[in-house]
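Our preliminary data section would be incomplete without showing what the modeling component actually yields. Below, a chain of 236 amino acids is followed by its predicted structure, encoded as C-alpha cells that our downstream tools consume directly.
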Amino acid sequence: MWQCLIIEDDHENARYIASGFERLGHSAVVCHDGEEGMQRATQQQWDVIILDRMLPNNIDGLSILEAMRQAGKKTPVLVLSALAALDERVKGLKAGGDDYLTKPFAFSELTARAEALVRRSRAVPSLRDLKVGDLTLDLLRRRATRAGKVIALQPREFKLLAYFMMHADQLVTRTMLLQSVWEYNFDPQTNVIDVQVSRLRNKIDAGFDFPLIHTVRGSGYIFSAKDVVTVATMSA
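Predicted structure:
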C-alpha cells in the first residue's frame, strides 16, 4: 500500500488519479495549489508524489521539487505536466524529479511508473532471503523451501511468489500482478492470474499446516501466515 500525495490544480484530473489509486488499495491525498503542496511535500512522509508543474499561489512544481531536495527529502516524485517539450522534461528531472509523464496520459502507465518508483525506493540491495511463516525464498539461489521441504518452481511461479512475499500482509490486486509479474499495462482479459495462483497454491499450500495465499473476493490476494480472521480484518 502506498501513501501518495497528488499535487494537481485540475480538480477533475486529481480526483481521477486519486480514485484510481484508492481502487488499487492505496491511500491518496490531494492538494490543488502550490502553497499547500509545498507544506505537505516538505513536512510529511509519502511513498510517492504525483506533481503537476503549473500550480496556483505563485509556487510551481519545480519550486516544490527543489525545496524537497534541499530539505533532504528523498520521496520519489513523478512529474505530471502538459509541458511536453524536451527542455521542459529536462528541467523537471534536473530539479529533482524521478520521472516525467506528459498529459494526456494513460492511467495504466501512470500507475506502472509510480509503482516502479515506489519499488525502487523500497528496495534493499543486500536482500537475499524472503521469509513468511515457515516459507523461505532464497533470491540468489532461486530456491523455495517450506517447513524444510524444497519446492520446485517454474520461472513465472518464482516471480509471482517473490512479489507476494515482498508484499506480505498487504492486499495485492490483479492489476498490480499484471503490471509487476507479467509486465502488462493492460488487462488481457484472460484467466492467466487465476491459473498461475492456483498452481502456486498447489505447490506451497497443499499438504502444509496452514495456507499462505488468501483470496480477498472481488479485490485480489493477501499473502500472510496469519489466521484467516486476521487476514479478513486487514483487508476490510
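Residues 229-236 have pLDDT under 50 and may be disordered. The CA atoms of residues 94 and 162 lie 34 Å apart. Preliminary results of this kind motivate Aim 1 of the renewal.
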